Amino acid sequence: MAATPWLLLLCLSLAAGGVLQARAQPDSNGFISIDCGLQGEEGYVDTATKLSYYPDTGFTDGAGTCRNISADYITPSLCKGMYTVRSFPSGPRNCYTLRSLVPGLKYLIRAKFMYGNYDALRQPPIFDLHIGVNHWHTVNITKPHVEKSVEAILVVPDDFVQVCLINTGAGTPFISSLELRPLKKTIYPQVTAAHGLLLSERINFGQIDENNVIRYPGDTYDRIWTPVVSSGTYTEVSTTSKVIPDSLFEVPTTVMQTAMRPRNVSSGMSLSWDPEPQPNNPSPGYIIIMHFSELEFLLFNVTREFSINLNNEPWHPDNIMPKYLYGAAIYNSVPSWKSRYDISIIPTVRATQPPIINAIETYTVVTTTNLGTDSLDVSAIMAIKVKYQVHKNWFGDPCGPETVMVWDRLTCSYATTSPPRIIRLDLSLRGLNGDISSFFTNLKAIQYLNLSNNNLVGSIPDALSQLTSLTVLDLSHNQLNGAIPSRLLKRVEDGSLNLRYGNNRDLCANDNSCRLEPKWKSNLAIYIVVPVVVSMIVVIVVVVLFCSLRRKRQGSMNNSVEPQNEATTSYVPGNNAHRDSFSLHQLESRRFTYEELKIITNNFQRVLGQGGFGYVYDGFLEDDTQVAVKLRSHSSTQGFKEFLAEAHILTWIHHKNLVNLIGYCKDGEYMALVYEYMSEGTLHEHLEGSKHNGGRLSWRQRLRIALDSAQGLEYLHKGCDPPLIHRDVKASNILLNARLEARIADFGLSKTFSGGNDYVSTTTLVGTPGYVDPEYHATMQLTAKSDVYSFGVVLLELVTGKPAVVREAAPINIIHWSRQRMERGNIESVVDARMCGIYDVNSVWKVVEIALKCTACVSPQRPTMTDVVDQLQECIELEEGRTIEVGNNGFYTSGGSDNPDLSYNAYIADQSSDSTTFQTEHGVKRVHSMPTGPATR
Ligand SMILES: *[C@@H]1O[C@H](CO)[C@@H](O)[C@H](O)[C@H]1NC(C)=O
Ligand SMILES: *[C@@H]1O[C@H](CO)[C@@H](O)[C@H](O)[C@H]1NC(C)=O
Ligand SMILES: *[C@@H]1O[C@H](CO)[C@@H](O)[C@H](O)[C@H]1NC(C)=O
Ligand SMILES: *[C@@H]1O[C@H](CO)[C@@H](O)[C@H](O)[C@H]1NC(C)=O
Ligand SMILES: *[C@@H]1O[C@H](CO)[C@@H](O)[C@H](O)[C@H]1NC(C)=O
């Protein structure tokens, strides 16, 4: 299904673009190499890389013009790719579309710009570069002869990616060349769906020839390693032996074979730079990756050992001893934010050899969480664009970035964590010719479609009736003919579609009847009334139950009412003037007598816990199934309503992540609920450390618990009809079974809300301090987003191991506590130290991001539980995608080395250090710091 639109689109484009489009495909390496502005159809083979470069005609939708740079700037050393540019004098955004990619894979994308006074204006422009809908870089061309390169490593979510040039009013955007290289999924672990890296520097130290740039084929990923020649106080070390690359960055052996060291054996080295602020990213976070390998065979009596400081503080907690001919990397996973970077590499007191460094990469982190439009919508609208040849300004992503660049005549809807969808399309009065494209029916989220006042011919596609969201369809003033599809008419009759089709020559409704109005009106009422009645009945079920019991309570507590009597109780609720009778009799679950409960619980012997209604007891059914019995306490003056609400809700909803009700007891004044036994107690107990293996939940277990609970809540919000708001989501209402699977419990406060009204008003504020949505608190209007808020608090508890109200010097809400720390860029300081640093830091980061979104003050900014479930699934993939197995002691060990003598050691994060996490990749031997500390020179 998904592939079809693209297939068709490619065929259409092929027809228009001839043989060129075929070249828009990656080559056998998966590389795409484009020489922008190159005229004609012929590509050429680049002399240095032997890669074929092609003209860009098939990539730009015909936008822009080809220009030559001024002959004054053509020098013998200038590569051919810079001779021509494509400039985009018109339109705010112009894009290159790179197709046939693998969704979810990491790619390196590199754009080059050399102005070369191509327009004879001597005025280099400034413009923005977007990848998809995410801002990457502001390209500030300062000198005509400078070759500027912008390189990004990112995860491409779709099977295509767009590189867009944005005219910001400071000159005409242009581009010289564009390259795309696929990367292995495991390399550059800092790159995730949420964050990409923008290259600052990639330096190969110890080169003798300053022109010896290493790229493809030396580097299989065609990264460009800039040579730095040692001089002054530095000299080079090199080898001709092969250096085995590390597995996370795969630095080519030719880069690792050379290194730089100080001439003076007892000196250190220093590297420094200032952060490069970007207009949209004034304080970029940096990722630093240093590559080391010993290149000299050292005798036993000589030692090369050094430590690394950043701004005079230890950057990596351990001293480094590079291994002979094995590449290794020291890098941070969480970006660091500094006003200046001074790195010093200092020999330790034991060292007899000076430190070395083989290569370094520095990157800034770019957030890539702005999602592009749903890819099916994109392919459909692109096909529509091609078919009707309209709207030359339809370039780039149809919906994004939000509010800035949305395509003309098109409206989108935006969710926090799912891609934007096209919901309105107005192509009226656009001179459309031909039939109604079937691509319209691929816009699955469309609500409003206006194709009126065109020259459309042919019949109305039946598939339009399948667009369930479509409420307005205007086909009037065209030349359509044939019968209106009966299913479309049915939509009109049931009132779910407003169809206009007047002023078409030969169009007629079925049954020779072109008049729809009378039927339409009479059926409308039914359409509205039915769902209301359905939802009312369910509300009444609960209300009636509640009232029947309240009446009983108002009577004598000793006067036990026979259960049978309740069946006839009726109640007239306030404005829902409706009568009906329901009772616990109609519950499907097993009904227990009080005597039975006594036997089951061995006379209420063992207390499992205590809730608002009373105690929860341990029990065993006849078949030895262990159960938990929640008995309403005699002294409990509250909770009739809650108790019954819970009983009722649990009998009509079932989900693997909601606690399972086995039965209930309504025996005289005794009321009890019997649940499946959850042997691991509550999440709260686990986090607090009061239960069993106190607080020792691993990150993976925490993620699973988060996902389970999120799925339970998603079911309440989306899977239940009518939907339910839990209203008291908290760690102590999340129960765990022996396999640590989580189930949501305690539905006593839940409320139904009907799908049409997005909120319900409540008169009493309920919930637990620390978890209550401030918006609900202020407005008393309850929405599903209140649960999302509380769930965000639970997520923060899972990450931090702290309770919802953190009691430090003064009590502080966990959200503020976490935000304060996160604002300092310090994720390590929020993470529960009991996890001993064993986690994929990107997934932790992501969970914190989700939690902070969930706890946004304004509810529309919060994601839905469906979004949260999707995001948590990605976090689990990240965590489970860690390449190295976790040992018991917090260190990673893994075999699989080419050299069986080697066991790899990696080290993650000393929690006490600052904002950076450090990981040593294989090959670096971990050595303990000297008691005296590193020697400073
Ligand atoms: C650019 O230069 C080539 C030959 O070097 C020439 O054929 C072409 O017409 C020039 N293009 C423009 C736009 O001047
Ligand atoms: C562009 O670069 C010049 C020179 O470095 C600088 O003065 C100017 O502020 C920059 N403009 C922008 C918009 O970054
Ligand atoms: C090497 O560096 C040390 C410390 O900076 C200095 O004392 C020594 O004189 C230097 N040796 C040479 C040969 O420059
Ligand atoms: C190490 O031992 C070798 C040979 O045994 C000797 O020539 C060299 O001077 C020693 N080096 C150091 C630093 O002690
Ligand atoms: C469709 O567009 C036409 C022309 O712009 C407009 O007159 C008409 O009201 C629109 N139809 C609907 C249902 O909005």
Automatic annotation (TrEMBL):
<keyword id="KW-0418">Kinase</keyword>
<keyword id="KW-0677">Repeat</keyword>
<dbReference type="Pfam" id="PF12819">
    <property type="entry name" value="Malectin_like"/>
</dbReference>
<dbReference type="InterPro" id="IPR001611">
    <property type="entry name" value="Leu-rich_rpt"/>
</dbReference>
<keyword id="KW-0808">Transferase</keyword>
<feature type="domain" description="Protein kinase">
    <location>
        <begin position="602"/>
        <end position="876"/>
    </location>
</feature>
<keyword id="KW-0433">Leucine-rich repeat</keyword>
<keyword id="KW-0732">Signal</keyword>
<feature type="transmembrane region" description="Helical">
    <location>
        <begin position="524"/>
        <end position="547"/>
    </location>
</feature>
<keyword id="KW-0597">Phosphoprotein</keyword>
<feature type="region of interest" description="Disordered">
    <location>
        <begin position="918"/>
        <end position="937"/>
    </location>
</feature>
<dbReference type="InterPro" id="IPR000719">
    <property type="entry name" value="Prot_kinase_dom"/>
</dbReference>
<keyword id="KW-0812">Transmembrane</keyword>
<dbReference type="Pfam" id="PF07714">
    <property type="entry name" value="PK_Tyr_Ser-Thr"/>
</dbReference>
<dbReference type="InterPro" id="IPR011009">
    <property type="entry name" value="Kinase-like_dom_sf"/>
</dbReference>
<dbReference type="InterPro" id="IPR024788">
    <property type="entry name" value="Malectin-like_Carb-bd_dom"/>
</dbReference>
<dbReference type="InterPro" id="IPR008271">
    <property type="entry name" value="Ser/Thr_kinase_AS"/>
</dbReference>
<dbReference type="Pfam" id="PF13855">
    <property type="entry name" value="LRR_8"/>
</dbReference>
<dbReference type="InterPro" id="IPR017441">
    <property type="entry name" value="Protein_kinase_ATP_BS"/>
</dbReference>
<dbReference type="InterPro" id="IPR001245">
    <property type="entry name" value="Ser-Thr/Tyr_kinase_cat_dom"/>
</dbReference>
<dbReference type="GO" id="GO:0004674">
    <property type="term" value="F:protein serine/threonine kinase activity"/>
</dbReference>
<keyword id="KW-0675">Receptor</keyword>
<keyword id="KW-1133">Transmembrane helix</keyword>
<dbReference type="GO" id="GO:0005886">
    <property type="term" value="C:plasma membrane"/>
</dbReference>
<keyword id="KW-0723">Serine/threonine-protein kinase</keyword>
<protein>
    <recommendedName>
        <fullName>non-specific serine/threonine protein kinase</fullName>
        <ecNumber>2.7.11.1</ecNumber>
    </recommendedName>
</protein>
<dbReference type="InterPro" id="IPR032675">
    <property type="entry name" value="LRR_dom_sf"/>
</dbReference>
<keyword id="KW-0547">Nucleotide-binding</keyword>
<dbReference type="GO" id="GO:0005524">
    <property type="term" value="F:ATP binding"/>
</dbReference>
<feature type="binding site">
    <location>
        <position position="630"/>
    </location>
    <ligand>
        <name>ATP</name>
    </ligand>
</feature>
<feature type="signal peptide">
    <location>
        <begin position="1"/>
        <end position="24"/>
    </location>
</feature>
<keyword id="KW-0067">ATP-binding</keyword>
<keyword id="KW-0472">Membrane</keyword>
